[in-house]
Amino acid sequence: MLSASPLQNASLALLFAGLYFTVRAYRRLRRSSLPPGPSGLPIVGNIYDIPATNEWLAFMEMSRKYDSDVIALNLMGDTMIVLNSVTAINDLLEDRSLIYSDRPPFPTLNDLVGFTWHFAFMPYGPEWKERRKVFMQQFQPSQVLLHRPAELKAGHVLLQRLLESPEKYERHLRHMAGMVILSTAYGINIQPEDDPHIAISETALHAMACTGNRGSFWVDSFPILKYVPEFLPGSGFKQKAREWARAVTAMPKVPYEFVKRSRAAGMANSSIASRVLDDIEESGANQDEREKVLEDVLAACYAAGADTTVSALASFILAMTMFPEIQKKAQAAVDEVVGPNRLPDFEDNIPYVDAVARELLRWRPVFPLSVPHAVTADDVYKGYHIPAGAVVVGNSWAVLHDEKIYGPNTDRFIPERWLTESGEINKAIREPDTAFGFGRRICPGKDMAQWSLWICVASILAAFNITKGVDENGVPLEPSGEYTSGLLCWLGGLQVGSSRAKIATEWRNYLINVIYTEKRAGQRIWVNLTLIIGLSKVYYT
Ligand code: HEM
């Protein structure tokens, strides 16, 4: 074996030292031109500067501390830029959306679990554009009108189910959301219980909630771990991912094949799938390719639309429990327009309910940090360097709780902030659009989501009182009002399904005690609900 001379050793040591200091100096230089932020530790960077809960509040605090609405964090070598004001969000995610519309990679979610069909997680590029275009055609405001009958019917079935077992309200909200989406997208009439389509989708959504937070698994930080063989100790994540992948792969295929079979048998209901398939078959061009896009888009409706709507409605239940005086006002507003003999309809003009629905999205945004974007080219903003590849997070919570925009006490649920003195919607107040994300990635299901929320809120208010539960001594039990946090420490993650997780874990545990729903106005409402049961029987058979 050859051995190096002392001179060679000294030269090598010098070379390494030189390299080390050059890299350090380069990093310092780069860091100094990044937006301000906590300095962090070697290697791990700022991961310990981000708390495990309520990260959006920590980012607002950093913004104050560094006197900058744009802050930068280093998460194990990756740069995360957090935008804490409406101005910064507009300047970058809206006005420069050409380069700010990418997504960071999701190694566990996409590569291991198989959500590659879901365009919400696709990089900005032709595949994403194609799917988004097809989606938008079906969810633009004029098309959304076609979905209203399904939303109304599902709202009525929701009331009936709440009446039967109010303590299972979260399950009923899920059923309602699934019913709207499966019937709109595929023309599928779901079963009242144990529907197989719902079961597959819920398992896949659970997988999404577990893996959508980048950083939940080490493989997110070290993608090479994807290749670890399953027999090695510590590779449990791969087995779990393989189990989830079965449902995730089945989610787009099973309902799509159902539609194809129903069409072949001449029994398909009207749906987005059927309308687009008619077009595809008529034109005959690129049939397989276009069908694959359609299959993905339909599945994206459930994947993106179910948990979100459920989460917002669960916040509604919470708000009505915490602010009973608002509930009374909202019920009075509904009663005044709707009267005692029917349930609300989309044609009803009830500004107070509009205000409640807006306040809901503002007060407890489903995605407090939206869904992370990524920037595809180097950029300069306010003199700061934003490096290509950085994850860019819009702090929706900061905007939606900004008292300069929405007035005082933004932590309280105050629908009046949206109203003029005469009780109409005040058009001068910025709509809660921030709750639906930004720029080219803004939620394309926004209109449908808002109408779904509206009809459920109005219908529940018309039929039920929502009150705190009492313990065995009759003492009211206070709900904690806490939510889970979705953004894990390493990289800007997702909030998908996290409110659901909280409700599932905490609320369900003392659900029967904490929140119960009672029939309001006794017989009068019961009569209405009997009518609804009649309607839903037609639906179920
Ligand atoms: C209250 C309900 C909802 C809320 C709060 C919500 C919010 C959001 C947010 C914050 C994003 C990320 C936007 C961004 O990256 O900047 C998003 C994306 C998306 N949403 Fe929604 N959403 C809701 C309901 C729905 C519904 C009902 C559908 C479908 C029918 C839907 C379909 C989608 C899709 C497909 C994307 C991915 C867009 C893309 O990456 O291009 N959402 N949503």
Order of helices and strands: HHEEHHHHHHHHHHHHHEEEEHHHEHEH
Estimated radius of gyration:
26 Å
What is the distance, rounded to the nearest whole angstrom, between the alpha carbons of the first and last residues? 84 Å
Topology, number of strands: 8
Indicate the mean pLDDT: 82
Biggest sheet record? 4 strands, mixed
Shape: globular
- Alpha-beta classification: alpha+beta
Uncertain stretches of 5 or more adjacent residues: 486-541
Pathway: Secondary metabolite biosynthesis
Family: Belongs to the cytochrome P450 family.
InterPro entries: Cyt_P450, Cyt_P450_CS, Cyt_P450_E_grp-I, Cyt_P450_sf, Cytochrome_P450_fung
Cofactor: heme
Structural commentary:
- With 541 residues, the protein is α+β, with helices and mostly antiparallel strands.
- The protein is 54% helix and 6% strand.
- It is built from 20 helices and 8 strands.
- Helix 5 packs across helix 13, helix 12 (272-283) packs antiparallel against helix 13 (287-322) and helix 15 packs across helix 18.
